[in-house]
């Protein structure tokens, strides 16, 4: 008995076709539900590996056993069977089905890989994150318009060859996974964004004149700063290409001093080694009283830093 006849008798081709068809369907379902369910990126890879490993097992099982009304039984060879025109046509169609669906699976896999590869060469995505709280907005004009520092920065950087997205931070903000999926090249964030939002919502208030910081104020700032650090750690672990630019006018101690900022960065790197070499800090010129991104020196500092971090051409207009 020829091998082709034996494969047909044991329904190996039919099992292979059904398996490939079901596997392709499973991959489509995983692709559709991945984003709504926030499935991790490795879930699709694991699914492909498991389905690929199951294919030879299914083929071996179909060769050895025949599943009928009485359950799995060993297939008995039938020397009397012959492969006629109809049998040959059936085998050919099954082979075509296997090849066709296999090609669809291969195309889906390679298409996903090509998208990732092309994404790494795409225009950099920059996410501007800041608070809606008035106390965290640097200039009166922006406050009158109910805007944020991110609005000013967006206008300032709009001519660069980058994609700009703005993210307004509130005290209950929890969009870390959504940010991660955007695969940003740079996250530009106000160090006190979480604090100002939480302070406004909780009504803790700010010291006036020569008043010292209250214990409640200090505790709230510590919580907010910890939330910021945790965000940087989470994003750095989820995307190894994301860099961070943290700015402030000086709230929270000696931020204008370079050594203070360097120590702050070292503490982040000690907690989250994945952030090492990826966090840059700047002190907005003018300190807490006159600091604003509408100042020419502040605008020049931000633009120069963003251009250097992203290695983009700062002299060309945004083609988008």
Architecture blueprint of SSEs:
Elements: H1 3-9, H2 12-33, H3 42-64, E1 65-68, E2 71-74, H4 85-120, E3 125-131, H5 140-144, H6 149-157, E4 163-169, H7 176-181, E5 186-190, H8 193-202, H9 215-238, E6 243-248, H10 258-271, E7 279-283, H11 287-290, H12 296-310
Parallel strand pairs: 3-4, 3-5, 5-6, 6-7
Antiparallel strand pairs: 1-2
Summarize the structure.
By secondary structure, the chain is of the alpha/beta class.
Tell me about the largest β-sheet: 5 strands, parallel
CATH architecture of the largest domain: 3-Layer(aba) Sandwich
Order of helices and strands: HHHEEHEHHEHEHHEHEHH
Query: What's the name of the CATH homologous superfamily of the largest domain?
Result: Response regulator
Q: Can you identify the CATH class of the largest domain?
A: Alpha Beta
CATH fold name of the largest domain: Rossmann fold
Mean pLDDT: 80
Class computed from helices, strands and strand pairing: alpha/beta
Distance between the termini: 66 Å
What is the helix tally? 12
Number of strands: 7
> What assembly state would you assign to the polypeptide chains in this entry?
single chain
**Beta strand %:** 5-15%
Transmembrane segments: 12-30, 42-66, 87-106
Keywords: Membrane, Transmembrane, Transmembrane helix
Descriptors for this entry?
Rossmann fold, 320 residues, alpha/beta, two-stranded antiparallel sheet, 5-stranded parallel beta sheet, elongated, 12 helices
